[in-house]
Design a protein that fits this description.
single chain, about 130 residues, alpha/beta, Rossmann fold, 5 helices, 5 strands, globular
């Protein structure tokens, strides 16, 4: 499965990519903000992991823009952020985010969230 990892922090992207590798996912594409992510997104991307707070285009705006594209309507989106208020989580869901994980996180937590999103996506496709 190929992941698009979107975060303005190079360090955070490294942490996410390394965590993905530790749980068995080796195909990744990286972007520093939502605008760059939209440029990198194509039909080979099967899962998106995005931060919320980024310059140029936030993760929420990126999720909305991706959901507006025919090729981005169904791709799973996991938001990784420090924002934990209930209103933030609801806003993310309304923007089309499938699940939400708080920083800091561990590789097992990331794996669990990815599996939850994939289980729901598989059920919706059936």
């Amino acid at each position: 499965m190929k992941f698009l990892v979107v975060d303005d922090s190079v360090t955070m992207r490294r942490i996410i990519v390394n965590s993905l590798q530790r749980i068995g996912y080796t195909q990744t594409v990286e972007a520093g903000d939502g605008e760059e992510a939209l440029c990198h997104f194509n039909s080979s991307i099967q899962f998106v992991i995005t931060d919320w707070n980024m310059p140029n285009m936030s993760g929420i705006d990126f999720a909305r823009a991706l959901r507006a594209r025919p090729d981005g309507k169904q791709v799973p989106i996991l938001m990784v952020t420090t924002r934990s208020m209930r209103e933030d989580i609801l806003a993310a869901v309304e923007a089309g985010v499938n699940n939400y994980i708080l920083k800091p996180f561990t590789p097992p937590t990331l794996k669990e969230k990815i599996e939850q999103v994939m289980t729901v996506a598989a059920g919706a496709a059936a």
